[in-house]
Amino acid sequence: MKIAIALDRFVCADLIKQMRPLRYKMWRGDRSSSNDAHPSLRLRIEALQESVVVLHALWRVDMDRADEINLPQKVANEFYALVSERHLLIDMISNTIVLSQGALWKYLMIRDTSSTSHSRDHQPTVVPRGTSPILEWAMLDHLLDLHFGLLEVGKDELKDPPTMDGLDDLAQRISATFKRTLPALRIASKWLRAKFKHVVQDQEFIEFQEKEKARGLEVEKKSPRKISGYSTKTLRFWQAYARFILALSQAFRVTKLPVLSAP
After folding, report:
1. Is 261 helix (H, G, I), strand (E, B) or coil?
2. Which terminus has fewer CB within 10 Å in the chain: N or C?
3. How far is the C-alpha of 80 from the C-alpha of 75, rounded, in Å?
4. Tens of pLDDT along 31-63?
5. 92, 82 Cβ separation under 8 angstroms
């Protein structure tokens, strides 16, 4: 197991070194030449693809570096921009979501396996570097940011849908931009339903507690069953989710939807 992890980290580190300097400068905000200031669409998409891979690699070998250059937020912002501008293909939108879901799943599997192994040996559990509540929240935070982007695009595309009167085909009420996000939204929705209990555990507050504990401070929730006021990103996600569902219900009234012939 240790050899596999060491090999994993070696491959990740090598991958980061091979990242093309120009695209790396884009994420650092270092755009010294006029050509770099307005990168082509092809370059933006390739930069996003490489940056997603590098972000996942940094979670394995140097999480602090990812935070230092604010890579998770830059990836999420560019993902949202390219989706809203209808520049990403359906498969790439879905694959980006699935990759982040898979990364979190793999982390949780390794964490749970490690915890079980320690309990069997009756040894005190030591949280290894890179498998802490801070890393868990970083992965979940990024995933929620990607979901947030899809929800915001959907909400905006549902603002002024065509009237349902005289339309037999409901697909005509769905914009081309929104249509591209539907497979990814379906994947995101299924994931959220399956992982709902995990998401509402308020991992953001747990990460906040961990950081405060490192400073010698103890922070407790006022209401254990509610999302903490400190968890601003989590609250933002659920607010966006509520806005999207409201916009969806207004654009497609339940009373006017056809009866499904199959689940």
Report:
1. coil
2. C
3. 9
4. 444 455 566 888 899 889 989 988 988 888 777
5. no
